Amino acid sequence: MKLLLNSKFFEDLSPRELGEKILDLGYDGIDICVRPGHPVNLDNVHQTLPEANRIWQDQGLVCSLATAPVSLIDPTDPAADRLYAACAEAGIGQVKIGYFRFVDGGDYWQLLSEARHGLEGFAKLSARHGVLTCYHTHSGQCIGSNCAGVMHLVRDFDPQHVGVYPDFGHMILDGEDMAMGLAMIRDYLVMVGIKDSFHAPNTDGEPPYVPMFTSMGAGSVDWRRALKLLVEMEYSGPLAVHTEYQFGEQIIRQVGYANSKPDNLEDLARRDGEYLRNLMGELGLV
Questions:
Q1: In CATH terms, is domain 3-282 a member of 3.40.190.10?
Q2: Position 78 pLDDT exceeds 50
Q3: Quick one: DSSP state of residue 187?
């Protein structure tokens, strides 16, 4: 299982500088965010992404995933086709699309039907370009907020074209058992999100406890059990570390809060990578 670092908070680095930073922090590769304000974005992706991945390959890094803006949920948007085409040219096998959102008072089943229609369009892009569509489980008001919910979305789609990207930190926040959740998505599992979380005392009022992200081993995720479950499923794909630390309820629920950079980002990112590698060593995975 290779360790990837999500580039959300490293938008000020050029592709070469990003690769050097990833190596310095002890990771195997990159989950590259293709987003506004980043060196690789939807306007220039056709040129910059293939060039960037050549640089990373020369540096000995892998880039398995391109993460789109959280708003990219329309497969007919020309930017979507450009992204998939660029990934195909660059040799990047997976695209994480945006989130289909629920709102208070909404008709869940109608929204789900609309989301499945959108996902059908992305599946067609996957078939055309040979790049898998990934959908990430994000707690809160997102269609597919956990493994149970995401199966409403992806069920009956071809796993060759559509995959699920579970996130243990979000699963904890929305109260889903890891073993049961992973069993639900077994046939669609393609990528695993790594972040830790817990419910912290609320110093600002009610409710008395609110969701919070933290560094690995400081939250409620049982990482030893999580890795053992993945091994038992014979999962050997990437683990993508998201470097989200000490973010509270208001920020967590925004979805895609790239303007809020964690304090001590690099130290914590390095520590997360070391934590994972040490645990994998104890379990005989490296």
A1: no
A2: yes
A3: G
